[in-house]
Design goal:
By secondary structure, the chain is of the alpha+beta class. The chain has helices spanning about 30-35, 45-65, 95-115; strands at about 10-15, 20, 25-30, 75, 85.
């Protein structure tokens, strides 16, 4: 969600409908309307490049072609400064990682109880 200056109101981007909703007004989400929302000039090449990159990013979000959710930050396209982070709900551990965790946990528990029971490893004397 993008917001204008608080005394100017707010706007919401609807990714499914590709519209900008600002108060009672709804307009299509394109370069001109996004430029107007961000108060950028389409005549300025740098502003036009920025709005174009942002619009491609928004389309990727709509189409589901953004990088998959992960713990680490994802760099935004070079035109857009910054990075993003989004998460998946639910378990983010692969079955192989889960098996590795369970194995080491089981190994640790087994060693803990074997030391508590007083058994010591057999050492052969030469």
């Amino acid at each position: 969600m993008f917001h204008r200056v608080p005394n100017q109101g707010e706007a919401t981007l609807d990714l499914e409908q590709l519209t900008i909703v600002a108060g009672n007004q709804t307009s299509s989400l394109d370069k001109d309307s996004l430029s107007k929302l961000l108060r950028m000039s389409p005549a300025n090449p740098r502003d036009a490049e920025y709005v174009g990159a942002l619009l491609r990013f928004i389309y990727s979000a709509r189409d589901g072609t953004l990088p998959p959710p992960q713990h680490h930050l994802i760099e935004l396209p070079t035109t857009l400064s910054g990075n993003m982070q989004h998460f998946a709900s639910g378990t983010a551990v692969s079955p192989i990682q889960l098996l590795w965790i369970i194995s080491w946990f089981g190994y640790g528990i087994r060693r803990l109880f074997s030391h508590r029971s007083g058994s010591s490893p057999v050492v052969s004397e030469a």
